[in-house]
Design a protein that fits this description.
The complex is a heterodimer of chains A (about 500) and B (about 1000). By secondary structure, chain A is mainly alpha-helical. Chain A is built from 19 helices and eight strands. Chain A is globular, with a radius of gyration of 28 Å. Chain B is built from eight helices and 53 strands.
Chain lengths: ~500, ~1000
């Protein structure tokens, strides 16, 4: 047998060489799989003013999710009922109305989680506060500090003792270590934050919507008042009043219309817009005021308003509490039957616990963009702190602190005057009652009343089913206790 | 790839060793007919040198050494080995083999003779695909392969399927790795089933050669290629037909509806809505209105051929399918073209190429959930007409915010999603020295997905959540995906002392996938504009999703892998295979980036032993076993670090402004999820190979399960755009038994019968959930209720968690004797007080069902008689539960007919509760809503006629076959919903029927023409 070469030498070499080249480059070192992310790494951020500004916007973002705090704060009080479609429509809301809230309540868990998300975003900035310097850094840090105080104040109002983190994020793993910090310590931090913010922030900001000195002072006064620190409260609030930067809007009926957002009375306002869509999958992602759709008139068609889910319906009790001459009544509360009678083309459906009344301040108005889901993208700003609120808080602090009833009467009557009511001349407990009543009526539908009742010790008599020593705070969602390693005691009574 | 360095330099050394050889010629004939056999593979054993016979059965093979063994193999013929001792012209006779064991099976970076495979590998050939006429390739796997369970995500045109190989082994992505000619394909809708030659499913640890991502099994798809030395051949296959719904859910007619609604209102203390029932009649049957017969057409042209050195195959196809709901509004079109070309550049250097283009166009309607067309058809009141006296669609007033007129909905749904995809491969195989071969191939995919979604201003009724009272809105997006895989490996094969056969493979694989999501651009239009005319350039207002928020939308994910495999057999009787693979993935942090995945398998071909050789009863018997560790890295990218890709948007000065916030919370500790897989199997052939049995026991334990558990709210995971971190947090076990038997009772030239049956028993159990709560939950039921499905130790993954019922309260005494149950009254469901605390509440929830079937099985019958052929195929699923969640709980919506059997007084019903509009706990998630989803489905029946050859010769054609076929013919089930094969893809939350779009029944007329 004759021997033969397998293939011709020449072509063998060239192709073999080619193949070798292929194999040579195939072997990659391990750093081939070290790939940077296209988006920025949170640990390597804050390299410019823009970075701080960018993180600050994200910290503001969480304010929009406080719609649930506002809505539930109202529903928990004797001002409104849960409503909705049926007794089983959003059980968490129904429970809170009926004072039977269980530790398994998705809406309470939302408040817990969303407010801590806000705390974490504010702390993210403050954790890196020393990394890069720029001209207006103090203001950025003061805004972040204000926001941390805002979110922590919500947390103490709802849950009492909560884990306190200062200038550091709670990162994965921290949930197994942190304890609930006593409420007093959290309040001390809130006060400290707001004092810094009120001393650092400008009276007028570069952009509408940012926290100002006034916002910090008003919130500080409110925080003092919640702790019965009347002198400090009065000082903070009167400092704000005496700046003369704010005044009551002339007529109450314009206050809650979209054309009058961020008006002279607005001390701090949570900003919403209708330009971006939203869905039920992530309510906290909406740039609109979700509560407005939830408050809406069930299956409504007709002028002025748009329909919604008929939650948070005012009771006849609060409606009837208004003096018929009170200009605020028909602005604050819509009598839907009367409205339907007055307008021929109105139709609506009665929802669960239909009272005939709707929370008119925060009802969807026609004329917005109705970006889908239109119920979740209403642009109505939440008037978080109004000057009227500041006046009434100041009046309360002055009266309860025994500081000056004359000034207290003055502030109260300023509010009453706009409502078309006669001035109050009584003093002592009667004056306090008058302040309480006007506070309830002036601010009905704005989410304050439950906490006002609690902090003044009137909740048990006012709210059916309210148990003293228990219902002052809400239960920590049991899943949250479990997820933090089952170390925390539940709030008493739950 | 600048950081790739030269490691394998040794490969290039010493290529000057040469061998001595000669050229051999010969002819291969069919031993029965003595016809020449074209396309027979002729290879020198244990080498990669070979050729194929030409059209006259002749072959020429160079470089044959004396005493080389030549192997002649051909599909459906018994492989023959001939020792070359200097013959000048070999005359080879091959014997037909009905079920060829010597078929070559693709096993990953190589092939193996089926007989010698030691893993659990199943093969589905092109005949099965031709028989089933699937629109998607997954449908050809359903019931065909033991251990592989396919569930449709929906019956709508173009919708996907879930492939689960041996159960649900991870909480995340359970899809197997799918490789088409070595190319990673994630979306099987782009493949034309007519292009596929075979599908191999690797079910056990031998898939470990693919290391990472092989944990869910591997599906290897081979596309059609031509044959060398064969003339140009055309084949044209086409079918056309229509589809219809396989079921309508019986609901109340108008009179029944009004009666029952009145009863519910009266019970709830409200005024009755229908005071006069006399003129209501049967009213509108909304399901009849939305379902229609919808056409389906498919054309497929294939051109094959080959020269002495090359082979090629070209295919083109067109599929168009309308929806049984919405017709052309739910149309799906697919165009494909494919070119495969292989050539021998040199005798020992082979080039393999293919290129596939696929275009799909899909229109969809809302489906499978609240607000879907079918949900509306089921819930809309029969008392409403479709249109009012003016011809306008009626408004579903009073039926809650979610139920709308389904026909108005169809008319006002506008969208399209177009996918353009190009996939290709270039591979080189080079044989050198005597025993070595080197392979290098690059596979790539490039896809563009373009979507257009148009929402006109529309009013469906007061308060309807689907109203668009704002502006016409057009949302467009364009996402780009590109990936490539670069595989390189060398194989050494040799036989020592005739009995010791060794094969050694060493290689590397690089996989890179990159892409960009546009995030969608939304444009608003104030003046009337329709879908066709809407152009984002003319919008008055724009929202640029990602762009506005400053996010890149880009990703770049990579895998770097090295692998080695040793295969050894002794005398073809004792088989061993071992694999080690090292994978590196960008998904993990620097500490945990690399994983080592070993696996091994053993086989014993008992029938080769003397005591069984030539046994008349047992023709073949093999025991095999495998064990290995496989990896899984299918989690979102960058989970080990914290990236600012969350959402932070707020309003300053009335303008929406975007900031940056954290997305998925980071967990630097995460590492590979590992699956330990054991398989013990037996292959047996009896009675002249008329009976073919395969049985396997398997146990897969997945440890360090990658999951995104709920985490403490204090970490901020629920902020907009944020997500819980990924953790290694659980263990799941899947164990089971597979059995497949084939029987050919008749095997004559013009009459044959083949029967196949396979069954899989599967037991899924979670053994550990390592988060603080001890469980995970998912899925949805009703509105505002807790997630109904859980994952918890001791239970199957995704079991249903709710209240257990104990009949109906018959009277007041029963209510007061029972634990306190909110709103309970006679006629309400009685729930079991599991914890005996005297109160019925969420703490009384228990395991009330399992969505995973205990057993699935398939049955095939195929008969050929002269010119006729008949095939039928059935599939069954036993023991899976389904949650009925397509009924809206609202006073005025329509109800299924079972409501007629409701409780109306003591003793009237102990299963169906009373009707009331008042507050009731009957709607709480309980076993009242859990039904047995077992079913048997006659999936396909087909009769074909092939014209006689004499007739065909007159036209110069090779084959003409006509057939009629029906798919999804009948389903035997107790389940009350549309389709018991309903399934969502997620492990926790599967088996919840939200108004599942039924898989249609299809009638087809088809033709196969070869010329």
């Amino acid at each position: 047998m004759k021997n033969q070469y397998k293939i011709q030498m020449k072509s063998s070499l060239s192709f073999y060489s080619l193949l070798c080249l292929l194999f040579l480059s195939l072997a990659c070192t391990d750093d081939f799989i070290e790939v940077d992310s296209f988006d920025e790494d949170s640990e390597n951020f804050f390299n410019s003013e823009e970075d701080y500004e960018s993180a600050l916007i994200a910290a503001y973002d969480i304010l929009q999710s406080t719609y649930i705090n506002v809505m539930l704060g109202e529903i928990a009080s004797n001002n409104t009922l849960a409503g909705g479609e049926s007794a089983t429509d959003v059980p968490g809301i129904q429970e809170i109305d009926d004072m039977v809230h269980t530790p398994v309540n998705q809406q309470l868990r939302d408040i817990w989680s969303w407010m801590f998300a806000g705390v974490n975003r504010a702390n993210y900035i403050l954790e890196f506060k020393d990394k890069t310097d720029f001209a207006n850094k103090d203001i950025v840090l003061a805004e972040a500090t204000f926001l941390r105080a805002y979110y922590y104040f919500e947390l103490v109002k709802w849950f009492g003792d909560v884990p306190l983190a200062v200038d550091q994020r709670l990162l994965f793993g921290a949930q197994n270590e942190v304890e609930r910090t006593p409420k007093a310590e959290v309040y001390a931090q809130i006060e400290q934050d707001l004092i810094f913010a009120s001393e650092t922030l400008p009276a007028t900001q570069t952009q509408v919507g940012r926290a100002t000195q006034g916002a910090a002072l008003a919130l500080l006064g409110k925080v003092y008042l919640y702790q019965d620190k009347f002198t400090e409260a009065a000082t903070a609030l009167e400092t704000l009043i005496n700046t003369n930067n704010y005044s009551l809007l002339e007529t109450y009926d314009q206050l809650f219309e979209n054309d009058f957002e961020n008006n002279v009375e607005s001390v701090f306002e949570v900003q919403y817009t209708d330009v971006e869509g939203a869905g039920f999958g992530c309510l906290q992602c909406s740039e609109g005021n979700v509560a407005v759709g939830f408050n809406g008139i069930r299956n409504y068609s007709g002028p002025v308003f748009e329909s919604g889910f008929s939650f948070n319906v005012p009771t006849a009790e609060v409606y009837n509490l208004f003096d018929p001459a009170d200009l605020r009544r028909d602005v604050a509360i819509l009598d839907i039957e009367a409205w339907a009678a007055a307008n021929s083309d109105v139709s609506f459906v009665e929802g669960f616990e239909h009272t005939g009344y709707y929370n008119r301040k925060y009802l969807a108005r026609q004329g917005d963009l109705n970006t889908g889901d239109a119920n979740l993208t209403n642009p109505n700003n939440y008037r978080a702190i109004r000057y009227a609120d500041v006046l009434l808080m100041a009046a309360e602090a002055l009266q309860r602190g025994g500081i000056d009833e004359g000034r207290a009467q003055g502030y109260l009557n300023e509010v009453r005057e706009r409502a078309g009511l006669d001035p109050i001349t009584v003093t002592g407990p009667d004056l306090l009652e008058a302040i309480y009543l006007d506070r309830r009526l002036e601010l009905v539908g704005e989410g304050h009343h439950f906490f006002d009742l609690v902090r003044t010790g009137r909740a048990a008599t006012a709210i059916d089913g309210f148990t003293s020593g228990k219902h002052e705070v809400f239960p920590i969602p049991s899943i949250e206790i479990e997820l933090a390693g089952n170390r925390w005691a539940q709030n008493p009574g739950y | 790839m600048k950081n790739c360095i030269r490691i394998l330099v040794f490969l290039c050394m010493g290529h000057f060793l040469m061998a001595q050889s000669t050229t051999v010629t010969g002819t291969v004939l069919d031993s029965e007919t003595q016809e020449p056999l074209p396309g027979v593979n002729v290879v020198i054993k244990n080498s990669n040198t070979g050729t194929t016979t030409d059209f006259d059965g002749k072959f020429v093979l160079a470089n044959v050494n004396e005493n080389d063994v030549l192997v002649f193999s051909y599909i459906s013929f018994v492989t023959k080995e001939v020792r070359y001792t200097g013959q000048t012209n070999l005359a080879i006779n091959l014997q037909p083999d009905v079920a060829a064991l010597d078929e070559v099976v693709v096993i990953g970076y190589g092939t193996q003779v089926k007989k010698e495979i030691t893993g659990a590998v199943a093969v589905v050939g092109s005949e099965t695909i031709e028989e089933l006429n699937p629109t998607r390739i997954e449908q050809a796997l359903q019931g065909q392969v033991a251990g592989v369970n396919i569930t449709a995500e929906s019956g709508s045109p173009g919708s996907g399927s879930n492939i689960r190989i041996r159960g649900i082994s991870t909480n995340g992505d359970n899809r197997p790795l799918i490789l088409v000619d070595g190319n990673v394909i994630e979306d099987l809708s782009v493949l034309n089933p007519g292009d596929i030659e075979s599908i191999n499913v690797l079910k056990d640890a031998t898939a470990g050669i693919y290391g990472v991502r092989a944990a869910n099994g591997v599906v290897l798809i081979t596309t059609k290629t031509g044959s060398k030395n064969s003339p140009l051949k055309f084949s044209y296959d086409a079918y056309g037909g229509f589809q219809q719904t396989s079921r309508k859910i019986p609901v109340l007619n108008a009179t029944e509806y009004a009666l029952l609604v009145n009863e519910a209102f009266a019970a709830g203390g409200s005024a009755i809505p229908f005071t006069d029932l006399s003129n209501l009649g049967t009213g509108t049957d909304w399901q009849n209105e939305v379902f229609q017969n919808a056409p389906i057409f498919n054309h497929n042209l294939t051109v094959n051929g080959g020269s002495e050195k090359s082979r090629y195959s070209f295919g083109a196809s067109l599929l168009t399918q309308d929806g049984i709901v919405g017709g052309s509004k739910a149309n799906f079109k697919r165009y494909t073209t494919r070119l495969n070309y292989d050539t021998d550049l040199l005798e020992n250097l082979k080039l393999t190429t293919n290129l596939i283009y696929t275009g799909t166009e899909r229109k969809t309607l809302s489906e499978n959930g609240i607000g879907s067309v079918l949900f509306n058809a089921l819930n809309n009141a029969p008392t409403f007409a479709v249109r009012d006296a003016n011809g306008a669609f009626t408004l579903a007033e009073g039926l809650g915010n979610e139920v709308i007129n389904p026909l108005a909905q169809i008319e006002n749904s506008f969208n399209s999603t177009d996918v353009d995809r190009i996939s290709g491969k270039i591979g080189l195989a080079y044989d050198f020295w005597d025993n070595l071969s080197a392979n290098s191939s690059i596979q790539f995919n490039y896809a563009e997905v373009q979507g257009r979604f148009f929402t006109p201003t529309i009013f469906y009724g007061a308060g309807k959540v689907f109203n668009n009272t704002g502006r016409n809105t057009l949302t467009v997006n364009k996402d780009i995906f590109k990936d490539y895989t670069w595989d390189n490996y060398i194989t050494y094969s040799n036989t020592f002392n005739q009995d010791h056969k060794v094969q050694f493979t060493l290689g590397s694989s690089v996989f890179v996938t990159k892409g960009q999501f546009s995030g969608g651009t939304q444009g608003f239009f104030e003046s009337p504009v329709n879908f066709a005319e809407a152009d984002i350039a003319n919008a008055v207002d724009l929202q640029n999703g990602l762009k506005d928020s400053g996010l890149s939308g880009k990703f770049d994910e990579r895998l770097l892998s090295y692998f080695t495999r040793v295969q050894y057999d002794y005398k073809g009787k004792y088989l061993f295979s071992g694999v080690l693979r090292r994978d590196g993935s960008t998904k993990f942090g620097p500490e945990n980036r690399f994983g080592y995945f070993p696996s091994g398998s053993l086989g014993w071909i008992v029938s080769e032993e003397n005591f069984l050789a030539n046994n008349a009863f047992v023709n073949f018997l093999k025991f095999r076993g495998s064990y290995g560790i496989l990896g899984n890295d299918r989690i979102p990218g960058n989970a080990f670090r914290s990236i600012l890709n969350g959402e932070g948007a707020y309003v300053f000065d009335g303008q929406l402004v975007f900031g940056q916030a954290v997305g998925v919370l980071s967990n630097p500790e995460i590492q590979w999820e590992e699956q330990k897989t054991l398989d013990i199997g037996v292959d047996l052939r009896l009675l002249d190979s008329r009976v073919d049995i395969t049985a396997d026991y398997f146990k897969k334990t997945t440890e360090g399960l990658l999951l995104q558990p709920q985490v403490s709210g204090i970490l901020g995971a629920s902020a907009p755009g944020a997500q819980a971190p990924v953790v290694n947090g659980g263990t799941v076990e899947n164990s089971g038994f597979e059995f497949a038997i084939g029987y050919s009772p008749v095997r004559q030239e013009d009459f044959s019968i083949d029967l196949n049956y396979n069954v899989t028993f599967l037991n899924n159990e979670v053994t550990e959930v390592n988060n603080e709560a001890g469980f995970l939950q998912g899925g949805s039921f009703g509105i505002g209720q807790d997630p109904p499905a859980r994952m918890k130790a001791g239970k199957p993954i995704g079991y249903f968690y709710g209240l257990e019922t104990d009949g109906i309260f018959q009277n007041v005494d029963e209510v007061s004797a029972h634990a306190t149950q909110p709103n309970a009254a006679p006629g309400d469901i009685r729930f079991v007080d599991q914890n005996n605390d005297g109160i019925i509440d969420a703490n009384d929830r228990v395991d009330i069902g399992n969505p995973i079937p205990d057993a699935t099985m398939g049955f095939n019958l195929s008969i050929n008689y002269k010119q006729f052929d008949f095939g039928a195929y059935a599939f069954a699923s036993v023991g899976n539960d389904i949650v009925r969640n397509y009924e809206r709980n609202q006073p005025l919506v329509n109800k299924s007919v079972y409501a007629i059997d409701r409780w109306v007084g003591e003793g009237t019903s102990n299963t169906t509760p009373r009707l009331t509009t008042g507050a009731t706990s009957n709607t709480l998630f309980s076993d009242y809503f859990v039904e047995d989803g077992s079913f048997v489905r006659l999936q396909n029946a087909q009769v074909g006629y092939t014209f006689p050859q004499a007739f065909m010769d007159r036209f110069g054609a090779d084959k003409l076959r006509l057939y009629v076929s029906a798919n999804n013919i009948f389903t035997f089930t107790e389940y009350r919903g549309y389709d018991p094969s309903a399934s969502s893809g997620s492990p926790i939350g599967a088996g919840i029927d939200q108004g599942f779009y039924p898989v249609p029944r299809t009638f087809l007329l088809g033709v196969n023409l070869n010329f």
